[in-house]
Backbone:
């Protein structure tokens, strides 16, 4: 790019650049937040606005149960004022290690800056028998993927607001105003989704993992089967055979996956049953244009409508 | 990318020290595996340890109910690998030493040792997957432990690593003559009155200890790389056994240092980056030979 | 280093040796005196190596008695039994001879270091101490192993096929060296060999091993052309290949 400017305007640009840099480097009571998943990071941004700087750990395309920690994320957690997790054992494989390594008392479990969104959430599929004797299960405390529930926005936002008020009470007015605005937006979105779901009621799907449990319940979709025999357990041959058998007489269903689970077993099942595969955004950031929590839910519902109405 | 090294040192002292210590000590054990032409053990033994960890996970509900893990309840034991690290290490140890014992017993029978170890490796790999399958938390935690948690190493793990590897290094140095002669020329060792069986047993203990502790701190893949690659690289460069041992440990240390540098500079997972570092140094060690080959043709 | 003449260095009385359930050598009786040069001969697979291992104490006697007193043994193994993967220098190999008397963590002591260099000179390899052991010729490696055995300061030196695969000139060098050690230092030598010519020119007596039995052959019977050849020919066919090899 070739920029031709007069001397004066060049000086002006330089001046503007310098002041903006200076302003950017003097944060107004900046609260450093680490969120385990991008969905939470988005909501932190909505509620925290300019007073927060947020880092998300999992990438949108990753399997949230299994996230590989990188050095910068431990550094970020070490410096964080607020740590926000989903909880209900969603991130249980990697958050304890991350918190141990970061050695930040403020954000460790029970600390002032620790936010557990799963607290107070009524999970689906809570096992009646909590003894774990029923074999492998990644969801020992019920289904933890409630970030994929269209109803969950207000709950997560409230938890985050409470956390921000604990670590940065000076920002109360600001946060509460943001929260009110965001709550309105969530309300509008929920109304929209409730309207859309009329078009989906009674449609049938097969899923890989039970991460879309809350969404399918909200939409009134009928889940014909799960490719994983149990959460976190890769498909066994006998389970796949049973699944294919049971789908023999079914027509007009789609196979729903996320980026991390759109694998060869899914392709094989699709080939055997000639059902199309629909890859939904697992989280914010899992595809181009999926930048906000509300937006990600829109993409999911629209994609499902497009796929199922075709079938 | 700009890295604040003072900050890195402030937050990751244990990870850095653990990586460097493993880089220094593992090659010394690996040297013997290499020279005795049992480099395969470097791959198979960490897999035994992994299998042991997976087994420990699989039987954890029973174990917590009937034996107990330091008073932990099942959920904590399953999900806090730092809290239950002694339990995991114990199972890794049982399987590593068990594997070594079985290989030793079968070693008395004729047949290709490489094939035996390959078979053992295959069995241990399958066992790892199957036990992980039966684990109450599925494969996730087994993966999490086995991919190498060096970046999130806890104080207790670090202390265990430091004590164990310190002991291994000291024993390697203190008994270096016996270990060498017993490996190189066992008959002469016996004629000179060195207890061959005792030294062999010592070597097995040192290898087993390194693998057991290493698997649960730096992870099986890093461990494998630090056991196998530095001796291989050093063998191209060394002109004497003395220099072989120095170069091997320097390459191990260099791999760890390079891995740390790259990991922090480019924000990459530490374990695989150390392996890549070892690979880079192995490649560099081969360079003189490549240019030599060219000039000849 | 010179042992008292007359004292028996090693005596074996009706000793038997074997592996597992199998007995390989039965009822062997030998006495070895200083300054003796004893060759162990016999067809392939007859138990020569087993007998040698019994002498060295690498095999326990299953019955009978082996008395070594406090005789210092030196051992020269077959060089091909040593893995050339080890990046050892010549000196590092020779130093191993002193491992039996060093304190634990050390690999060398000053006195032994001089002895090692002396012994390398003795075997005609002065100046080769920093060369890689594995790069040497067969004959040179053999001499390095002999230097190592001499560093053990032995009274009885046991050699396993030292001249197999070595050219004529090198074999003569080895023989001269062995003979000078017997004559000048009164060292006793027990040598396992296939090579009749070699044995004939240096051994003072021979032990004949065949079918698990050890019999004594005098120097004279070795000198009688044909007698040993006849014995060897009567042995297994494989033995013949061994002699020619
Ligand atoms: Zn899940």
Residues:
């Amino acid at each position: 790019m070739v920029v031709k400017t007069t001397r004066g305007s060049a000086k002006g640009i330089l001046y503007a650049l310098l002041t903006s840099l200076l302003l950017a480097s003097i944060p107004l009571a900046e609260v450093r937040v680490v969120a385990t998943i991008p969905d939470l990071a988005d909501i932190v941004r909505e509620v925290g606005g300019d007073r927060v700087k947020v880092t998300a750990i999992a990438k949108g395309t990753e399997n949230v149960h299994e996230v590989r920690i990188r050095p910068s994320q431990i550094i970020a957690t070490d410096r964080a004022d607020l740590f926000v997790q989903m909880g209900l054992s969603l991130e249980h494989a990697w958050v304890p290690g991350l918190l141990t390594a970061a050695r930040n008392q403020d954000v460790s479990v029970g600390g002032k800056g620790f936010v557990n969104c799963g607290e107070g959430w009524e999970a689906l599929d809570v096992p009646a028998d909590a003894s774990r004797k029923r074999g492998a299960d990644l969801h020992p405390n019920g289904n933890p993927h409630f970030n994929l529930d269209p109803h969950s926005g207000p709950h997560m936002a409230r938890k985050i607001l409470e956390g921000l008020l604990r670590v940065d009470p000076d920002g109360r007015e600001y946060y509460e105003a943001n929260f009110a605005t965001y709550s309105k937006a969530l309300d509008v979105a929920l109304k929209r989704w409730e309207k859309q779901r009329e078009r989906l009621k009674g449609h049938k799907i097969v899923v890989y993992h039970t991460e879309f449990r809350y969404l399918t319940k909200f939409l009134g979709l009928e889940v014909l089967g799960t490719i994983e025999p149990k959460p976190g357990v890769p498909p066994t041959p006998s389970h796949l055979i049973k699944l294919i058998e049971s789908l023999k007489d079914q027509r007009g269903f789609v196979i729903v996956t996320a980026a991390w689970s759109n694998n060869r077993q899914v392709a094989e099942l699709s080939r055997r049953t000639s059902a199309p595969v629909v890859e939904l955004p697992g989280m914010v950031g899992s595809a181009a244009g999926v930048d906000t929590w509300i937006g990600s839910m829109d993409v999911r519902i629209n994609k499902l409508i497009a796929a199922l109405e075709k079938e | 990318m700009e890295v604040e090294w003072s900050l890195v040192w402030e937050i990751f002292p244990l990870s850095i020290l653990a990586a460097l210590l493993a880089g220094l000590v593992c090659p010394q054990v690996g040297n013997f595996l290499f020279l005795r032409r049992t480099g395969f053990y470097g791959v198979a033994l960490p897999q035994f340890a992994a299998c042991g960890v997976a087994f420990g996970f699989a039987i954890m509900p029973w174990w917590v109910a009937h034996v107990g893990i330091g008073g932990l309840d099942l959920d904590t034991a399953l999900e806090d690998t730092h809290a239950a690290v002694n339990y995991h290490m114990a199972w890794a140890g049982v399987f590593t030493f068990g594997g070594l014992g079985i290989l030793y017993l079968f070693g008395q029978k004729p047949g290709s040792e490489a094939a035996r170890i390959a078979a053992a490796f295959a069995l241990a790999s399958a066992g790892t997957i199957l036990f992980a399958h039966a684990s109450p938390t599925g494969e996730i935690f087994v993966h999490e432990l086995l991919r190498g948690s060096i970046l999130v190493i806890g104080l207790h793990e670090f202390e265990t690593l430091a004590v164990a590897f310190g002991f291994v290094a000291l024993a390697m140095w203190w008994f270096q003559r016996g270990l060498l002669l017993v490996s190189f020329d066992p008959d002469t060792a016996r004629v000179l009155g060195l207890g061959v069986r005792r030294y062999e047993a010592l070597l097995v203990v040192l290898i087993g200890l390194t693998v057991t502790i290493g698997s649960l701190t730096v992870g099986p893949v890093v461990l494998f790389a630090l056991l196998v690659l530095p001796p291989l690289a050093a063998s191209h460069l060394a002109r004497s056994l003395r220099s072989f041992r120095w170069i091997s440990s320097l390459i191990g240390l260099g791999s760890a240092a390079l891995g740390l540098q790259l990991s922090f500079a480019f924000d990459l997972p530490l374990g695989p980056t150390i392996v890549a570092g070892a690979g880079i140094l192995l490649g560099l060690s081969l360079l003189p030979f490549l240019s030599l080959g060219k000039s000849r043709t | 280093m010179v042992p008292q003449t007359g004292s028996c260095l090693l005596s074996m009385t009706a000793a038997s040796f074997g592996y597992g359930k199998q007995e390989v050598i039965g009822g062997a009786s030998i006495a070895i005196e200083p300054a003796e040069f004893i060759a162990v001969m016999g067809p392939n697979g007859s138990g020569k190596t087993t007998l040698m291992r019994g002498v060295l104490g690498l095999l326990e006697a299953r019955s009978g008695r082996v008395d070594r007193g406090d005789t210092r043994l030196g051992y020269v193994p077959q060089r091909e039994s040593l893995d050339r993967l080890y990046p050892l220098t010549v000196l590092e190999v020779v130093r191993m001879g002193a491992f039996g008397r060093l304190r634990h963590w050390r690999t060398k002591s000053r006195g032994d270091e001089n002895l090692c260099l002396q012994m390398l000179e003795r075997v005609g390899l002065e100046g080769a101490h920093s060369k890689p052991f594995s790069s040497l010729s067969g004959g040179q490696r053999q001499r390095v192993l002999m230097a190592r055995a001499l560093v053990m300061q032995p009274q009885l030196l046991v050699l396993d096929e030292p001249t197999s695969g070595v050219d004529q000139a090198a074999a003569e060098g080895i023989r001269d060296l062995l003979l000078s050690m017997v004559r000048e230092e009164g060292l006793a030598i027990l040598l396992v060999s296939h090579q009749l010519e070699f044995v004939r020119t240096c051994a003072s007596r021979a032990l004949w091993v065949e079918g698990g039995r050890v019999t004594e052959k005098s120097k004279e019977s070795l000198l009688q052309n044909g007698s040993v050849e006849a014995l060897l020919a009567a042995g297994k066919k494989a033995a013949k290949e061994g002699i020619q090899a």
In short: Chain A has a mean pLDDT of 86.
